[in-house]
Amino acid sequence: VLGNKSDKVWMHRIGATSGDVPVEGAVAHKAIAAFSPDGKQFAVSGSEQFLRVGATDGSMAVRVLKHPIDLTTEILFSHDGRQIFAANESGKLRVCDTATGEIVWDFSAHNHVVKGVALDADGRRLATSSADGTVALWDLATRRKLGSYGKSSLGYSSVSFSRDGRRIAAASGEGG
Hints:
The protein is mostly beta strands. The protein has strands spanning 2-3, 9-11, 21-23, 31-35, 41-46, 52-55, 63-64, 72-77, 83-88, 92-97, 103-108, 114-119, 125-130, 135-139, 144-149, 156-161, 168-172.
């Protein structure tokens, strides 16, 4: 997903003979984007922008999901592409259904900005990292917090699972 000098957002299709897909209403210098694991969908959001979802082949118009305006800091598709996890500056995480646009789960994940979101290989657990200096682990089936880890005075900027799902890595600005 690309921006240009006019501050418009486009989903560029490398090697495609037809044109790029415009993402109307998204502002390039404030936008973040993600692709679904199968590469068939993309999502764009950002500062004071609604979450927009489109088909990468341009077969469907880009649609605006019913997502409250907030500064979206990270976007992640579920492994099957049916849900989008949108982390926010408010410390909330919103889970949206990509087909209906409805919010299926909206919860306070942290006390400060959520910076990173990751799913384990099974798609059963979610990890979130935050500027509050913690990493949280969530069970998606029960929607319960399984634990909170770390304590960085500078906060964590990203998070990921190991392939086997037994470890979580998070990046902070500490350690020099």
